[in-house]
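Hey, resending since the last one bounced:
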Amino acid sequence: MYDRRMTVGASDAVYIQSGDWAKLWDIKQATTRPQMGLAARIGIECEPLNRAMFTEQTGLELIYSLTWHESPFQLKGEEWYTYLPDGLLKDTSDESDIIVGPNVVNVRKTELQEENRFIPFEGKAINGMWQPHLLLKKYMPQLQHAMRVLDAPYAYFSVIYLNTKWEQQKILYDEPYADALFEKEKLFHWFQTENKRPPEWAGKRKGWI
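The structure tokens again:
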């Protein structure tokens, strides 16, 4: 059975990259979830709108299933390394490198057939005052994590800037960045397996991993 306390997901990667390991531990180990703030609630409510706008503007159809909440995608051999998509794009191009590779598995095999090819879609709804390059920097760990799980060469990042605009970007997989992030995520997972809360400085001190 899926236990998020013992996994590292794409959204967790944002905390890990920023050095908020102790905070992430507290969130994941809490027996009750903290009260959801307005910004988070808006983001969740806007997910269907984000998917609809992406399809309307690009003509690309997205796949989405509520069953993913019960059985996220996992990296083969690293089942603690998971991904819950906002959507998936079934790629139909003839480019042989745009595929879901053999490293991806799913608890529900009917959700993903190996002969199909999928690209991750991540959507956000944020304050219109955000600068796009800073927003991308914040969520780059989430995007790279998603691409690693699906063995995808790129991902789509779709953003609703509330009351101002909508835009989407095609983000390429950055292997050196993703490898460095993966090492940090593995170390955070060690704290999970040992049932030890990371010290407050974990993830913040340069050169400690």
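Residues 94-115 have pLDDT under 50 and may be disordered.

Sorry for the duplicate.
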